[in-house]
């Protein structure tokens, strides 16, 4: 019963995470009205200064709920940033085929396919940027026909999107070569994810496999690429398998330091643990346009690596970072106290533990803990002082003899 209630509470959190509304855009490019569904994060109205990444969904009719649920769940565990989601309604097979109309010979959009591209580029995105607080990190996602179509934005010299999620794409003519060519030239971070199933049509699988091989030859540190093949999944169930993988690929840098990351990337470093942490959060801002305070769990991970490798001087760097992120808390003074304690300077360690006692508690650091550390160290160096004094008296008596 308790497990059932926990599941219900988590589902409640997911469904209440965002504020969902429907809007209509009068498109001059298309000469018609287009319906979009918009999901705003729960914090959107509370924090008037905060900006959010944007996810644009082609086939928004059926992809919206799946992506919204996955992002809500990821953010609940602080593994994905809050994101504005916009789903473009394409009425399943009624409008999507004409929206994605291409010339089979050239592999480029024609007729309404060109107009739909202009609608997204010159009407939808400017409208959204004017209406909502959006960071430069924009993602576009689609399934089969629309998964192929979204690549045309990558063809442009300057694309409005930094991330692409292509689910079981029906690649247009020449895309196996053209996509790889474009990805090889990106000069700023770009994330590209594609997936397919062994149950997809063989001709579509063949194109995806060739594209995958071509992308693997690319040597460009700005490209962040991942492909998944799902065995036994249908063309449609593949979507539910793909979405979490795609989103975790995009937001890999956003996540807190995991046990795996700590063991394989951090504790094995010879030094510069604080630099690793600083770069992680700088990259987070560079990729997603999101700046957040360094997580306390990440402070703990770096502190642990420093202690394990006995690089105690780096605790001073960690203290500087703590004071910048949490100036009113005891964290910065605690790191300095810990450094002096490890180096054997008990008087200065006690002083900083005492200073920490006067600040706000944070994480596992409490006033009781700071008081006990101060009291313990004062007794230690007082005892040490008496022992030193007694030793000096004994030495003096021995000299007189």
Automatic annotation (TrEMBL):
Residues 390-401 have a biased composition (Acidic residues). InterPro entries: AB_hydrolase_fold, Esterase-like, Mycobacterial_A85_antigen, TPR-like_helical_dom_sf. It holds the Pfam family Esterase. The keyword DNA-binding does not apply. Residues 382-401 are annotated as: Disordered. Residues 1-20 form the signal peptide. Transmembrane segments: none annotated. This is Esterase.
